[in-house]
Design brief:
Jelly Rolls, about 15% helix, about 25% strand, Formamidase, FormamaseFmdA
C-alpha cells in the first residue's frame, strides 16, 4: 500500500502577520507556551513556517527594511508540538527525542530568499566593525540552485536546513539561562578581551516584553506579563538545541534532543535555503519561508544513557546531530587561513574567534581582487556552502581556523595564477548589494595593509 502523505500539523498563511496566524506562533522559549498540535512517534507529519523576520523583508530595491528591523521579534517559530509514543504516553523529562528530517524546502509560490547584514547600531554582525551599514541581497531559486541579481557571477546548490529546532526548557533550565546570560550582559565588556576584536552587541539578549509572542497566551494578561519577563530569546543555541544553525542538517538528518518538559514541546523555524559555516553576517543565511516533513521517536531515559552533563546540573547537556546523506558535491576548494592575531597585529592566545575572523577577512580581501565589492563577498561567504574548520587549537599561541570556498560556484577561475599578460584595470561587477547609510559614530576597523 502506498504510504499516506504527511499530515500537516502546522500550516501558515504568508499573507498574514505572525500574530495573525490561525495556529499561533511564538518567538521565545518558555515551558508554559501551550502546544498547538500533537503527533505520535513514527508518524509522518509536516510543519510549515514563515521566515525568521516575519515577512518584513521585501523583494525590492531597498535595504531600509533591514536597517530599521525590530530585532526583538525574531525568530518566529512553529509549534510547540507535543510528542507522544504509539500508546499515547507523552515524552517525559529525561527522555531523548529523535527528530528525523525526511524532506524540506521553500513553500510553493514563495521561492526566493534574502541575505543581509544589520546596521551596527541595530544588531550588527561578525564583521560589523568593518561593515557597519545595513546591506541586503535577494536570491531566487531554480530548483536546487540559487542566484542573486545583487551578487552576479555566482550560482550554487543550496543545502536547505532549519536554523532553529529545539524542545521547550524546564523552568529550572530557563532560570539557568537567564542568570548566566544576565551576568554576561551586565558585566563590563571592557574586561573581556574578545570584545576588543568582535564588536557585535549586546553581549546577550535578555528577556523583554517588547516584540514578545507566546503562542495562544493573550498579550497584556497577568500570565503573559509574567511569562514574557521570563521567556528566553531564541537568538543563541542552548542545551535544548535552538538556533544551532548547522548548515548540513538537511534531508535524512536526525537530531537527538533532550526532553525537559512533558510532551517535549518541539518547535522549529528560521528556514535557510543555504548557509555558510558561521552565518557571519548575522542575518546571513538565505532566509526564507519553508516546510519540514518529519518523523519522531522517543528514547526513554535517553538523556542519562547518551548525554553527558558538562556543568553543575544534569540539565547542562547538548543535543547530538546525525548528518544526512544528501549534500552538494564539490571537488575543488580555495582555502583561507587565519591565526590568533587581530587587525592591529596584536597576538591573542589560542583565540579561535580571532583566527576565524582573520580567515574571513583574508577571503574577502582576496575575492575583492576579482571584481566583487567587499560587501558582496561578506554576504556571499555568509550564505554559500563554504566550510569553516578549526584546524589547530593546541599550538601556542595561535589557534588556526580555515575557510574553504568551493571554486565551482563562480563563473570565473578565482585561483592564483601566473599571468603572461599585463594586468589590466580591475573589473567591477555590477550591480552591488543594496546598502543603507551608517549614521552612527562608532569607529570603523580598517586593515592598513589591505586593498582599497
Amino acid at each position: 500500500m502506498v504510504p499516506s502523505s504527511p499530515r500537516v500539523v502546522v500550516k501558515v498563511d504568508l499573507k498574514k502577520k505572525p500574530w495573525q496566524q490561525t495556529q499561533p506562533l511564538h518567538n521565545r522559549w518558555h515551558p508554559e507556551i501551550p502546544s498547538v498540535a500533537e503527533v505520535r512517534a513514527n508518524e509522518f507529519f509536516r510543519v510549515e513556517m514563515i521566515d525568521a523576520m516575519g515577512g518584513i523583508v521585501k523583494d525590492d530595491d531597498s535595504s531600509s527594511d533591514i536597517k530599521f528591523a525590530d530585532l526583538s521579534t525574531t525568530h518566529h517559530l512553529s509549534g510547540p508540538i507535543r510528542v507522544v509514543d504509539e500508546d499515547g504516553v507523552a515524552a517525559k523529562p529525561g527522555d531523548l527525542l529523535v527528530v528525523e528530517i525526511c524532506n524540506l524546502g521553500p513553500l510553493p509560490g514563495d521561492e526566493w530568499g534574502y541575505t543581509a547584514s544589520f546596521d551596527r547600531e541595530n544588531g550588527g554582525g561578525f564583521l560589523t566593525d568593518h561593515f557597519p551599514c545595513a546591506t541586503k541581497a535577494i536570491w531566487y531559486f531554480e530548483g536546487i540552485y540559487a542566484y542573486s541579481p545583487h551578487i552576479p557571477g555566482v550560482r550554487f546548490p543550496g543545502l536547505t536546513h532549519p536554523g532553529v529546532i529545539g524542545t521547550a526548557p524546564s523552568m529550572e533550565l530557563l532560570r539557568i539561562w537567564n542568570e548566566r546570560e544576565r551576568q554576561l550582559e551586565e558585566s563590563d565588556h571592557k574586561s573581556l578581551t574578545l570584545c576588543e576584536v568582535v564588536h557585535q552587541r549586546p553581549l546577550a539578549c535578555l528577556p523583554t516584553t517588547k516584540g514578545c509572542l507566546l503562542g495562544s497566551i493573550e498579550e497584556g494578561t497577568p500570565e503573559w506579563e509574567r511569562m514574557a519577563n521570563e521567556a528566553a530569546r531564541t537568538l543563541p543555541g542552548r542545551e535544548n538545541g535552538g538556533n544551532c544553525d548547522i548548515k548540513n542538517l538537511s534531508r535524512g538528518s536526525k537530531i537527538y534532543l533532550p526532553v525537559f518538559v512533558e510532551g517535549a514541546n518541539l518547535s522549529t523555524g528560521d528556514m535557510h535555503f543555504s548557509q555558510g559555516d558561521g552565518e557571519i553576517s548575522f542575518c546571513g543565511a538565505i532566509e526564507m519561508s519553508g516546510f519540514l516533513e518529519l518523523k519522531c521517536e522517543i528514547i526513554r531515559n535517553g538523556m542519562q544513557e547518551y548525554l553527558t552533563p558538562m556543568g553543575p546540573t544534569p540539565l547542562h547537556v547538548n543535543p547530538i546531530f546525525e548528518i544526512g546523506p544528501v549534500e552538494p558535491r564539490f571537488s575543488e576548494w580555495l582555502v583561507f587561513e587565519g591565526i590568533s592575531v587581530d587587525e592591529s597585529g596584536r597576538q591573542h592566545y589560542l583565540d579561535a574567534t580571532v583566527a576565524y575572523k582573520r580567515a574571513v577577512l583574508n577571503a574577502i580581501d582576496y575575492l575583492f581582487k576579482f571584481g566583487y565589492s567587499k560587501e558582496q563577498v561578506y554576504l556571499l561567504l555568509s550564505c554559500c556552502p563554504c566550510e569553516g574548520r578549526l584546524s589547530g587549537i593546541v599550538d601556542s599561541p595561535n589557534a588556526v581556523a580555515t575557510l574553504a570556498i568551493p571554486i565551482a560556484i563562480f563563473d570565473q577561475d578565482i585561483r592564483p595564477k601566473t599571468r603572461k599578460v599585463p594586468v589590466g584595470p580591475r573589473i567591477v561587477r555590477k550591480p552591488d548589494v543594496l546598502k543603507s547609510t551608517y549614521d552612527g559614530k562608532l569607529p570603523i576597523t580598517k586593515n592598513p595593509s589591505s586593498s582599497t
